[in-house]
Amino acid sequence: MLIAVPKETWPGERRVALVPTTVKKLINAGFQVSLESGCGAAAGYPDASFEDAGASIVRERESLLRGADVVLRVRKPSLDDVGLLRSGVLHVSFLDPFNERNLVRKLAEQRVTAVSMEMIPRSTRAQKMDALSSQANLAGYVTVIQAAYHSPKILPMMMTPAGTIAPARVFVIGAGVAGLQAIATAKRLGARVEAFDTRPIVAEQVQSLGAKFVEIDLGDTGQTDQGYAKELTAEQLEKQKEGQKKVIAQSDVVITTAQVFGRPAPKIITQDMVRAMQPGSVVVDMAVESGGNVEGSQLDEVIDVGGVKIVGQGNLPSQVARNASDMYSSNLFNLIDEFWNAEEKRLELDPEDDIVRHCVITRDGAIVNETIKNL
User: Fold this and answer.
1) Taking all residues of the chain, what is their mean pLDDT, rounded to a whole number?
2) Is 149 an active-site residue?
3) Confidence at 154, pLDDT banded by 50, 70, 90
């Protein structure tokens, strides 16, 4: 069975779906692996490193895709790429199926078995395949590094002969995987950290990292069965904004990570809140790709509002492409390994399996995922 890895074509994407160590594991498991020439270069993996692991390098993208039994990639494919796939091929990547309806229909028409990595359930068994979490972890780290780069202040307290420098105040909004990593990173760098999440249940996690949990009474909020924050009502959003105003105004750095799965990100920081911050302060909007948490943030731009920088860098995991590729590659291997029948040399994606039921979007010419089918 041939696994093909095409070069990513999404603008600015530096990650690669497989890394050499994973290639070696797959070959040992009984697969053949072919990669498009140059696909790992931006992540620090030249073609020679894949060849040393036992893979073949292909220069013709079309022949690579046409001959594949399994296609692994990071980003969603173009419609043209889908048109090159054989009936019955397994395609695994982030697909953004809530928003890419034409792509989903095309995958079904091409009779592709399409797995969307966003849809891997958050369960104990699926944890090792959870690419959303692995990539969000790195994204949380990157937000703090970006904030430190753009801030005119250092993050730690420093005692010098010229006087004592107070630690920077960092406020993290959203304490999911990314938010918790942002908190941990800011604390490691010596900042004074506060955090807020609509789910009071995460307060203990925030405090265990040495940060202060900001209490704002929003009424009943809770979380989904997958552990995501539930979408707030308009009234709750207003209460959140009011409760955060004072903390934001006193902060040197604000990092927003609030996202609602499958929907546009909520606007939780308004222009008047940004203007109330001291000049030199930095706001990093991690949710900018899904609409943004901060009014005025722009994708892949740094906006100056009265001396306050709003950083809207998209595709944050790609900023640390080497580690992001390593983790994503491991997620893919664990997914394949879970459903690989080594004796019969075939992948067995049982439609009744809980993981399969969640992440397989199309199969045998139809949209089979109930959530996406009912959109």
Assistant:
1) 94
2) no
3) very high
- Please identify which of the residues 37, 123, 133, 298 carries the catalytic annotation: 133
Residue 328 annotated to the active site: no
What domains appear along the chain, each with residue ranges and CATH number?
2-130+321-373 (3.40.50.720), 137-319 (3.40.50.720)
Q: Is 228 an annotated catalytic residue?
A: yes
Question: pLDDT at position 229, please?
Answer: 59
Q: Is 240 assigned a catalytic role?
A: no
Contact in structure between 347 and 336 (CB atoms under 8 Å): yes
Segment 349-374, tens digit of pLDDT: 999 999 999 999 999 999 999 999 98
Q: How far apart are CA 2 and CA 34, in angstroms?
A: 7
362 DSSP β-pair partners: 114, 367
**Distances from the Cα of 330 to the Cα of 135, 146, 191, 290, 323, angstroms:** 12, 26, 32, 26, 11
- Catalytic residue (one of 228, 298, 337, 357): 228
- What pLDDT band is residue 220 in, cutting at 50, 70 and 90? low
Q: How many CB atoms lie within 10 A of CB 59?
A: 10
Closest CA to 294 of 339, 258, 335, 336: 258
* Whether residue 127 lies in the annotated active site: yes
pLDDT tens readout for residues 263-308: 899 999 999 999 999 999 999 999 999 999 999 999 999 999 999 9
Mean pLDDT of the region 18-27: 98
